[in-house]
Amino acid sequence: EVDFVASHPNITLYIQSHCCGRVILRPPTTATDREFPQTQDLRLFQVAAARALDHSGWNLATSVFEWRYPPGTPDRKPSQVYRDKEGKLKNAPAGMFEEDEEEDPGLYAFQNEWHDYLGDRGYFAWGSSLETMYNMFGIFAFADEHWAHPDYNGNGSISERERLRWNDEEMDGAMYVDWHSFRHPTLGEVEIGGWIRARNSPPEGPLVQAESEMGNAYKIYMAGLTPRLEVKSEVTAANGEIGIYQVDITVENTGFLHTALEQAQALEVIDEIILEVAAGQNLEILFGEEKTRIGHINGNSESQAVSYLVRKKDPAADAVLTVSAKGQRALNAEVDVVVR
Description:
alpha+beta; six-stranded mixed sheet; five-stranded antiparallel sheet
């Protein structure tokens, strides 16, 4: 797997699926959020995880490090986004749900409470695939936990009593066998019974379809976060009589994710965005490189303008400048800019 990823620098997003818990898991895997060195990437992880939770209908979005630790404690930490008893998301990053800000000021309202949080204790997932994908390759990496028994009292944990209620009320008793005597050919008289499926086993039958739809809903959302390049141009006449024009080109990233995460840039594993131009038959480039590196572009942002001076060979006729923008982890773009 690592060799495959290393040979495919175009991989933008990685999601690993597990069961169970209906949880969206994000980095960091071995430290608290406040110890995460790439603060811009952390913000992207926090927002995307909360949005994914909203799309999935699941109950918790958390870093791997702060999930289910210390053992037995509810997942209701300041850095975790969770669904309350009424189904509303709590601790979402500020600005995600503007109508709730007076009631719930969001994740960053908890900054003054860090001293009350024992952040030195956590679940150290050394060598996890999330750590590998993000730390080694700068890939936007998540994991998920499909399937969970109902949390009827909404306290963040599932008791055996709640599991039995689920079996009785929703599964018509199919998941549990009452204890009864059984004649074993070797052991003699024994008792058998209990759960047919273990606590962490995925569901069966029609439940699989519903569970898959939940997971697919957030995965489709995640796929839509990837960088998407668009070319924007402005043509002005420098001397129209002799056919000389200035063409200013900017490249916009309309996706949520940066064309390279902070970690990818620090590792230098992703090439910069390449802007390339080609003159049509009625056009020649007087100033400007045919191929230019324009750096990386943050999500919902655009590059600085790159200017070209061009001349139409026949000033009375239209001419075309073909412009392309290419990135290893972005949807690339190509347009024909008409010079007239």
